[in-house]
Amino acid sequence: MLHLGDPxxxxxxxxxxxxxxxxxxxxxxxxxxxxxPKDDTPGCTIEACGFRDQYTxxxxxxxxxxxxKDTIESHQRFAKKFALPFPLLTDPDRVIITAxxxxxxxxxxxxxxxxxxxxxxxxxxxNIDCGSHAQxxxxxxxxxxGSP
Length: 148
Known about the structure:
By secondary structure, this protein is of the alpha/beta class. It has helices spanning about 40-60, 70-80, 95-100, 135-145, and strands at about 10-15, 20, 30-35, 60-70, 90, 110-115, 120-125.
């Protein structure tokens, strides 16, 4: 289990467009790594669309990356259907999911990590309300990073 202040585990994964994302590539930037159970399910859609709707403001200061075990093709359909403007990383072998303690029995847990520009865990969201998660993250960004 990760704790506040811990170094974020390194990762490397493809997004819905086949582009590789690594933790190292975001060095010097704040990052929200959010884990969710499954593409195109009710709670996951509400959560993703919340980030979509807040994307313009959040992305001024923080990179958003979604992570699930779904395939690239599933991520492509999900991102297109809901016009998601941020990458969705595929982790079919649950390497990243396990490293971040987001593994559930069947599907990944719904948990998010706000990672600071030095690569440390600044906040862990483990009791998520899908409908208000994006607003909660936006408030925390203002507290941690300041207004753009």
